[in-house]
């Protein structure tokens, strides 16, 4: 009866998944990592209830009006320590390492559509997050899971392939939710590599580079990159990566993006060193001239 009394709130993007068939499919698809499980968005607790059948859970909920309902529904699990609910907006938490937990963790969530991409990117950045299975709007899921050559392939796709791998599992119809949303949802999983240092450049640099590379999808990659890099350097980097000069960003493989970024960064570093060397030589000449003048 309490569930019926709670009205979904648009500002929190609340569409509660209550179809047992799809709830079970999500639970069966959870990555088998022996680490802490974290749920984002408890809602009415239908997915939470299924998760607690298999492992202890830390859960975040932003809607304080659900507090009494959830505390009563899961009173035994909370008392035993099997469930810990944190009533807080995760977007207000510091976005540094250990965003949602102080040790390695995995995430299971029916993400609100309007902030799904932002949350997933922050999970990708967090070294302590080892993997996650989430449900989002189908179009968003396709972008994270796309591969080179597909029209959905974008900066998000490259970011995922740079840090791990993604797999699109299944669609969830609108009718499985209450209230019924306007779009179809999809469930997908991302497995992250245990370390990010293998990239050879910072994640921040990669994100900025990909934002530039895909800034105008209809234009060539060379055209986009030339907005911030010297045209000749871009041409040389593409040639070095065996990428055609007229290729568009969605046609380029993740490994090639890495190679191009490495090449452009190396060229910039060499140019800086050359400029610094020239400036140092100029200072040395001026110093010698001053010393000679003083001696005379």
Task: Give a quick set of tags describing it.
296 residues, Rossmann fold, alpha/beta, elongated, two-stranded antiparallel ribbon, seven-stranded mixed sheet, 43% helix, Helicase, Ruva Protein, domain 3
Would you kindly provide a written description of the structure presented here, covering whatever features stand out?
With 296 residues, this protein is of the alpha/beta class. The chain has 2 domains: 197 residues, Vaccinia Virus protein VP39 (Rossmann fold, 3-Layer(aba) Sandwich); 93 residues, Orthogonal Bundle (Helicase, Ruva Protein, domain 3). Strand 2, helix 3 and strand 3 form a beta-alpha-beta unit. The longest helix is centred in the last third of the chain and has 42 residues. The mean pLDDT is 88.
Topology:
Layout: H1 2-5, E1 16-17, H2 20-28, E2 36-40, H3 46-51, E3 57-61, H4 67-73, H5 75-80, E4 83-87, E5 105-110, H6 116-125, E6 129-137, H7 138-145, H8 155-163, E7 164-172, E8 177-178, E9 185-192, H9 203-213, H10 221-225, H11 231-240, H12 254-295
Parallel strand pairs: 2-3, 2-5, 3-4, 5-6
Antiparallel strand pairs: 1-8, 6-9, 7-9
